[in-house]
Amino acid sequence: MGFFDALLGRSKPKRANLDDLFALPPAALTLEAATGFKPTGVGAVAFRQVEGAAFQTAESESIALISSDPAAHVSQRNDGYGYTWQVVADSNAEVVNLVTNLHAVNSALVGQGFDTMLLCSTVYFSHSDGRRLALVYQYKRGTFYPFAQAGPKQRDNPLEIQVRGILSNELPFEEDTSNWAALWDAPGISDSPGGDQRR
Predict the structure, then answer these.
(1) Which domain of life is it from (predicted)?
(2) Residue among 112, 16, 144, 19 nearest 134 (CA)
(3) By Cβ atoms counted within 10 A, which residue in 30, 46, 124, 137 is the most buried?
(4) Contact of 195 with 79, CB cutoff 8 Å
(5) Is residue 187 in a domain?
(6) Residue 152 domain-assigned (yes or no)
(7) Per-residue model confidence as pLDDT tens digits over 107-147
C-alpha cells in the first residue's frame, strides 16, 4: 500500500490466489460444527464466456480432467446474463475432492490466459431445516463472502453475518459487504436451472 493510500484510508484489494480455495475443507468442518450446515457436494465456477479455440480448449481440458474422477459429475449452465457456470457435483459430498476439481477449472482458464473472465467460485451447504448457503470466492478481489437466499430476491443477512463471524479466522473474508453480490437462484442454491450474479 502506498503512502497516500494509507493516509487516505484506502487499501488495495487482495490479489486472487486460487490456493485460497483449499482453505475451504477445514472451514466446512468448522461451519458444520457451529451451525449444522453440511456440504451438499456441489460447487461451481462462473466465468464470462468468449469465442475462440483457446477458450474452448481450456473448457474442454477442465471438463476432461474432472470427468476422469469417478465421483464427480460436471455440467454447464448459462445464466442469461453473459456468464457460464461450470457446475461440479461430488457424489460423496467430499469437500476436498470438490475443491480440487473447482481449482482445476480455474487453473485451466488461467493457464490459457483467461483469468480476467473468471467471476467467482462457489461451494454450497444445506441445513436440515431446508436452508441453503454458499461460500463464494471472488476471483477479482481474492476474498470470500457468504450468500444465503431466503426466498425470491431475499437474503438471510443475519445468517451471512453469523457465518462471517464463525469463519473469519479461517478464510480471507471480504470486509466491504457492498461487494457481497447476490447469486439469485445460482446452481446449487436452488433448483433453478440458471444462476445470476449482478454487479
Answers:
(1) Bacteria
(2) 144
(3) 137
(4) yes
(5) no
(6) yes
(7) 888 877 778 889 999 999 999 999 999 999 999 899 999 99
